[in-house]
Amino acid sequence: MRPTPPPRTYRVKSFGCQMNVYDGERMAELLAQQGITPAPEGEEADLVVLNTCHIREKAAEKVYSDIGRLRREDGTAPLIAVAGCVAQAEGEEIMKRAPAVSMVVGPQAYHRLPGMISDAVEGRRSVDTDMPAETKFDALPARRKVGPSAFLTVQEGCDKFCTYCVVPYTRGAEISRPFNDLVAEAHRLVEAGAREITLLGQNVNAWRDESNRGLEKLIEALAAIPELARIRYTTSHPTDMTQGLLEAHRDVSKLMPFLHLPVQAGSDRVLKAMNRSHTAESYLRILDQVRAMRPDIALSGDFIVGFPGETDAEFEDTLRLVDRVGYAQCFSFKYSARPGTPAATMPDQIAPEVMDERLQRLQAALNRDQLAFNQASVGKRCTVLVERKGRHEGQWLGKSPWLQSVHFSGEAAIGDLVEVELTEAGPNSLSARLLQPVHG
Ligand code: 5AD
Ligand code: SF4
Q1: Domain with 112 in it
Q2: At the N or C end, where does the chain have fewer CB atoms within 10 A?
Q3: Which of these three, 82, 105, 134, is where a domain ends?
Q4: Which ligand is nearest the CA of 157, by number?
Q5: CA of 171, closest atom in ligand 2
Q6: Cα(332) to centroid of ligand 1, in Å?
Q7: Burial class (CB in 10 A: 0-12, 13-18, 19+), 349
Q8: For 26-30, 60-64, 246-250, which range has the lowest pLDDT when averaged over its residues?
């Protein structure tokens, strides 16, 4: 690589989960701290960070084609950094296959980007996929301005080793950030404009503090911040759904009535082959318990169809579970073999047409339930946190306590918490009538 002038502008492109969105925001803040500014809309950036996701489909191939697309007509390219889980999984391989890339940085090492950029400017390429003991959180700059709804990563990594999943390999072992750091960061987020904080982690409910207290203790501490109105957390594992956390849904009014609890499948044989440590019944029992604590709670989940060996009858078990739960919203995916995971080499991989058909049937059931949930909300009064302007003049968009998108017209501003009556339901959003602002 030849030396290049230091980059003046950047663009961070994040793919995949909320954790990546959070990492992307933090990388942007880090670059801004170095005096690099966001590239204006429509203009090429001097430095492009591809913050990649490896969880499904041909993730690595997509990255290579994205890199190819950054090439200019004269054959040159901006400075390119590949970050995120594909960077972690592929490492040196990216350097070999994509000479245009000058930096490859894993999700635990991106606080070292400034040094890597200096190297790249001097013409040296670098790969950093370490999982260093010093955490990136201590090395990152403080957050200055955030939207009304902010993310706070409290936990990273996963020790569960579901047989289809790359996360334990790309994000490493479970680590929890210290209690005091998190409370301090939450205060800073609130000062920077957040009214709602979503606690993030691959296994967020596996978070423990230094004296082994669970997530409910952190939730209680954040609930004591007066200007913070709402708390959420995602993604949870059924195994870590403790009594204390269930009770927080009853006792902490700022904890929103929403639980994202992936189940993946409804057949116990498939769940076992996936190395999920729950059965369909034990999962349903947890949902019963949380509903007893908070009767209006909205439930959400993740599903995989076509796991190796899944029979038609086993897939029907998934549909039956869906019917029993009545989810408010869900994510569902076709199984995709991830190299290096145990399931990738299991016999009886399912044909793509079969997966397509199962996914369609599952999604039809989930869409039906989502619409039914929204329709059942019509007539309710609730608060909406205003997140942005709508498409029409005077229209606002925000979220209900149950994480539904709500639009309404009237006097409001971004960051307001307003009282509305929900008037009409669609599959993906609701309309509402403004009653009165709760906080200005
Ligand atoms: N194939 C399909 N879906 C997957 N997920 C994780 N790994 C795979 C895979 N190999 C899904 C799971 C998980 C969500 C984040 O992505 O449903 O909960
Ligand atoms: Fe992957 Fe399972 Fe860990 Fe979730 S719990 S990140 S699906 S290994």
Answers
A1: 9-134
A2: C
A3: 134
A4: 2
A5: 6
A6: 8
A7: middle
A8: 60-64
